[in-house]
Fold:
Amino acid sequence: FLFRLFPLREHGMNWHARPLTCQEIEAFKKSSDVMQRFERAYQLMLRFYGITLTNQKTGELKRAENWAERFQNLNRFSHNNLRITRILKCLGEMGYEDYQVQLVKFFLTETLVKETLPNVKRSALDYFLFTVRSKRKRRELVYYAWQHFKPQSSFVWAPQDKLLKYR
Structure:
């Protein structure tokens, strides 16, 4: 189900699913119908995770009304982290890089700042962060993560000396 909604150019957990080609991705991007379905699928998954898309242009997100219940699900079942990684990669493939950045920042905020998703923290740092295609945006997110990571001296996702000089 998820591979059909969020196809990738790589094999996922289902080895029967055929990876997308670059030509297929370009054809999808040119079809407004396909892209509208993709956006609806993204919003469906966000709702499942207790998240609401508040701005379709920027990809800005906030907690949904049922966030507490849905976050319990995210904390309890780690297989969701693989799904989120897949969604993030697909967002990048389909040209929704701003959505990628917003979703990663949302999870960094919930794990490191608000501490509502402690069991998602490692995936957010190890995987979600590194799906972001824009090198500049990825660096900004790594810096944001470092700013909120406790203790900062244990942050291993970038060299401390570079983080201290950043900006």
